[in-house]
Design brief:
The complex is a heterodimer of chains A (about 270) and B (about 180).
Chain A lengths: L8 H13 L9 H9 L1 H11 L9 H13 L10 H23 L2 H5 L2 H26 L9 H19 L8 H27 L7 H23 L5 H32 L2
Helix pairs in contact in A: 1-2, 1-3, 2-3, 5-7, 5-9, 5-10, 7-8, 7-10, 8-10, 8-11, 9-10, 9-11, 10-11
Chain B lengths: L11 H9 L3 H20 L5 H17 L10 H26 L12 H4 L3 H10 L4 H12 L4 H7 L4 H21 L3
Helix pairs in contact in B: 1-2, 2-3, 3-4, 4-8, 7-9, 8-9
Classes of the chains: A mainly alpha (about 270), B mainly alpha (about 180).
Chain lengths: ~270, ~180
């Protein structure tokens, strides 16, 4: 393999000119860049190649006609999908509709254990996390959306934010029945996460999500966040170790489960001819 | 830099809206206008033109099923190419899985070369150049050069950021400089 050519500041200037011209009709170029093109053959060749008109050869009329008739045969009016904000709001509403009754049924033992600072801090983190993953799901439902936060990043930010906030806001106590009580919280959390993920998926399937694995992770994350939220307000153990290992564990396990299920679905679909 | 061939890109959202309203003429127009560049996009990765044509058909079926997710006034090309990109990726994974199960035979079937399949000298030259690029850079360059999309449009189509697309484009420039410096095709 040849080593890459050494680039001068003027070569970089040509790159910037190319960036500026990408997707525009403009072919105006600065005097300095034009002078460099006269001197540097490699840049001249690159610039010529990048700026020359490339018109793809037309495909066969027969092929297009086949596609057109196939699409026409099942053509019906459709209603355009709602805006990103509206979709994200639906996810958020579903989140609240699931979380409030669950908290009401399971009692407010956790709320009573927290002081005002802890309650405000963790609520801000949970709400922000919910907004981020709701937006991420809304972007993933619509092809060609500008993902301001990519799906994988959203899940990582959510998990890291939850774990960091928990470790900073809550006290570290000596573990008491760490596994027995923790395992109970984990099981309850996962039992909520599975049906919640299913409900969120019912909303997502109205769109056209393309990256299945990323979508699975995000669905798992929002369902895990919902479980962690319910546990946060209903669990009487409010020490950092318990919250990190078992409540955070639900969030992590649910996200991983979403990814694994999505990968399994993808593999099955790949086997189909 | 080339843009929408024929009529302006500004007309595409109108055709999409009419497509969503169920007008057959709009479907025909969209297929006619967008298929050449989709075919070239697929052709940039497929050695076999027949495979590229199969992908084109598969892509249009996906576009048809997802047409309700297009929002009026949004740019059309990122929406179309996001679907095209995943059509290609899914087909690639499916083929790789199938090939991993296949048993090698004594006389492998004849393969097609890019040069033999490219329909025109112009395209042949283009394909020879971009095939030296890694897939992710090739994808970005194909979208930028073949479809005339802006950096933001490519970022939308690939669920990426403008910064990441710029970086890929710059790396592609460096590789192409090397190739073009050796020999101007």
């Amino acid at each position: 393999m040849n080593m890459p050519p050494e680039l001068t500041a003027d070569c970089r200037l040509v790159d910037r000119e190319l960036d500026r011209q990408l997707g525009t009709r403009s072919s105006a170029i600065s005097t300095q860049a034009r002078r460099h093109l006269g001197e540097c053959e490699r840049c001249r060749n690159l610039y010529q190649w990048m700026t020359e008109e490339f018109v793809p050869a037309p495909g066969s009329a027969e092929l297009y006609s086949k596609i057109q008739s196939r699409l026409r045969s099942s053509l019906k009016p459709v209603k355009p999908q709602a805006s990103t904000r509206s979709l994200a709001a639906r996810f958020w509403m579903l989140f609240l509709l699931f979380a409030f009754p669950a908290i009401a049924m399971m009692g407010l033992a956790g709320l009573r254990q927290m002081d005002l600072f802890q309650m405000a801090g963790i609520t801000v983190v949970l709400v922000l996390g919910g907004v981020v993953v709701s937006l991420s799901l809304a972007w993933q439902m619509t092809p060609g959306s500008l993902h301001r936060i990519p799906g994988k990043v959203a899940v990582r930010v959510l998990i890291a934010g939850f774990l960091l906030a928990t470790s900073l806001l809550f006290p570290w106590h000596a573990p008491e029945a760490f596994f027995a009580r923790g395992w109970h919280c984990f099981r309850v959390g996962m039992a909520m996460a599975v049906p919640a993920a299913f409900l969120f998926w019912r909303l997502v399937r109205r769109g056209a999500a393309l990256a299945i694995t990323s979508l699975g992770g995000t669905l798992g994350a929002i369902a895990g966040l919902l479980s962690a939220t319910v546990l946060q307000f209903t669990c009487s153990r409010q020490d950092a170790g318990h919250l990190l290992a078992w409540h955070g564990g639900v969030l992590v396990a649910s996200s991983l489960m979403g990814i694994l299920v999505a990968q399994a679905i993808r593999r099955v679909s790949e086997r189909q001819p | 830099m080339q843009r929408e061939e024929g009529a302006g890109e500004g007309e595409l959202p109108g055709f999409m809206a009419r497509y969503q309203a169920g007008e057959p003429e709009a479907v025909e127009e969209l297929v006619r206008r967008l298929s050449p560049r989709l075919l070239r996009f697929f052709g940039g990765f497929q050695a076999d033109r027949a495979d590229a044509e199969d992908l084109l058909q598969d892509c249009w079926i996906r576009i048809h099923r997802s047409r309700h997710t297009y929002r009026p006034q949004e740019p059309v090309l990122p929406w179309i190419f996001a679907i095209a990109r995943h059509t290609r990726l899914d087909a690639y994974r499916r083929r790789r899985r199938r090939e991993s199960r296949e048993v090698l035979v004594a006389n492998p079937p004849e393969t097609y070369s890019l040069a033999a399949q490219a329909p025109a000298a112009d395209e042949d030259r283009f394909l020879r150049l971009v095939e030296s690029l890694p897939e992710s850079q090739r994808e970005v360059l194909l979208m930028l050069k073949v479809s005339g999309m802006s950096l933001e449009d490519v970022a939308r189509a690939t669920s990426s950021t403008v910064g990441a697309i710029k970086q890929k484009a710059h790396r592609a420039y460096e590789r192409l400089r090397l190739t073009l410096g050796e020999k101007r095709p």
